[in-house]
Amino acid sequence: MNKKNIVTKENISKVADFLKEACDHFKNQGEGCYNLPLSEDLVLAVGWSDGYNMADNDIIKSEEGQRQSGNWTCGYAVNAAVKVRNDADCSDFDFLNYPTNKDGECWDSGITMGLNETSKGYRKDARWFLETFVAMTNAHERGEISYE
Predict the structure, then answer these.
(1) Using CA atoms, how far apart are residues 85 and 82, in angstroms rounded to an integer?
(2) Angle at which helices 9-27 and 119-141 cross, to 10°
(3) Considering the entire predicted model, what is its pTM?
(4) What is d(CA 16, CA 143) in angstroms, rounded to the nearest whole number?
(5) How confident is the model over 12-39, as pLDDT tens digits?
(6) pLDDT tens column, 47-90
(7) How far is Cα 50 from Cα 67, in angstroms, rounded to an integer?
(8) What does the alpha-carbon distance between residue 86 and residue 40 come to, in Å, rounded to a whole number?
(9) Radius of gyration, alpha carbons of the chain
(10) Residue pair 90/37 in contact by the 8 Å Cβ criterion
(11) Residues 79, 82, 129, 112, Cα dihedral to 10°
(12) pLDDT tens across 83-139, in order?
């Protein structure tokens, strides 16, 4: 896959708009998982993921599901990642899988989304996700990773 055909200004804008819309939904404590299909096999997913420090004021965090874990409060934060597309079970971010290599290690492309993200920040993230999508697709075509 040619990076120049995918990482275009138009695609960066489309993905940045998607990220902003999804983050705005979750800032209002929205539920579910936002999915932007990138191909028949991969999707850009945005949704709640567990295991984050709720004292971090720079992340979009859930008011629900918080619990004590030692000296800190653990809970859900909004993440975005390129994941394996699963249209039958796409309503929960943590249920979608990452591509894996032959050793079973996942290609974790997840990032925690910031609470006060700017348009420039969304565009930077969009470019990175599109570049990651191209790299994953090329690795899959070479047989280096699996989508199963």
Answers:
(1) 9
(2) 110
(3) 0.93
(4) 30
(5) 999 999 999 999 999 998 899 999 999 9
(6) 999 999 999 999 999 988 899 988 999 999 999 999 999 988 77
(7) 11
(8) 10
(9) 16
(10) no
(11) 10
(12) 999 988 778 899 899 999 989 999 999 999 999 999 999 999 999 999 999 999 999
| Number of residues in the chain | 148
The pLDDT value given to residue 87: 83
Residue with the two structure tokens 């993905």:
15
Task: Give 57-60 contacts, CB < 8 A, sequence gap 24+.
Answer: 57/115, 58/114, 58/115, 58/116, 59/112, 59/113, 59/114, 59/115, 60/23, 60/26, 60/27, 60/113, 60/114, 60/115
Closest of 54, 10, 47 to residue 32, by C-alpha: 47
β-sheet bridge partners, residue 76: 50
